[in-house]
Amino acid sequence: MIPTDTLFHQNAYLQDCMARIAHVSDDGLVLERTVFYPRGGGQAGDSGWLTLDDGTRLHIADTRKAAADAPGANTLLHVPAEGQEDLKILFRPGEQVHARIDWERRYRHMRLHTAAHMLCAILPYGVNGCSITAGYARLDFVTDEPLSRDGIDAALARLVEAQLAVSVDTMSDEALRANPELVRTMRVQPPMGTGQVRLVRIENTDLQPCGGTHVLNTREVGLVHVSKIEKKSARARRVVLTLD
């Protein structure tokens, strides 16, 4: 299958687009281009709607990469919610659709994913697990040191109040191999093989490879706090962030 043009990488604030259906299977629909972010890198996939010119509307419950994707490829499956089989047969290759994400849900992903990067700057440890949802951000840090909930909350608040710019950059595969300290996640390696790796930078605070969606300024994160700190093992501490 042909790669999908990932408009969310060009503009994470883009909420909708017009697109042609490239492929339809039992697993989902592939569009030539999309604003839907696929599940990956710890971040949940987008949900939303695909609407035909005649008004027929298909609810998309999840977005993910096609199972047969080669490393670095981006053929994205828009997975319909259950119980829409009668509607799905109306969506055929070549048809034009209006693709719209559930923006409220996506924007929470963006705020919490940025907050997770802020947390990585506050806690200088390796990360052995990560999950970004609309309800929370969870990171598992490799450390046996005690963590202060109040201390983390105060540090997060300072970064929000500082109104730091969040930007996207790139680095060559070779440069990233020469700077392995930029990779904080131990289980999930950044996508390499295309020659360039996408980086997310928080002004004077954090820089790491990431393919997720983020806000443009830390002030957009808003009120965020630690809802739980859990000892997962002798050398692992789980920190859960939630938005107020």
Give structural notes.
The protein has 244 residues and is of the alpha+beta class. It has 2 domains: 5-101, Elongation Factor Tu (Ef-tu), domain 3; 105-243, Threonyl-trna Synthetase, Chain A, domain 2 (Threonyl-tRNA Synthetase, Chain A, domain 2). The protein contains 5 helices and 15 strands. The protein has helices spanning 7-10, 85-88, 103-122, 149-161, 173-178, and strands spanning 5-6, 16-24, 29-31, 33-34, 48-52, 57-65, 76-80, 96-101, 127-132, 137-141, 166-172, 196-202, 206-209, 224-233, 236-243. A 6-stranded antiparallel β-sheet has the order 3-2-8-5-6-7, with no helix packed on it. A 4-stranded antiparallel β-sheet has the order 9-10-15-14, covered by helices on one side. The protein has a 3-stranded antiparallel β-sheet with strand order 11-12-13. A hairpin with a 4-residue loop joins strand 2 (16-24) and strand 3. Helix 3 (103-122) packs across helix 4. The protein is elongated. The model has no long low-confidence stretch (mean pLDDT 90).
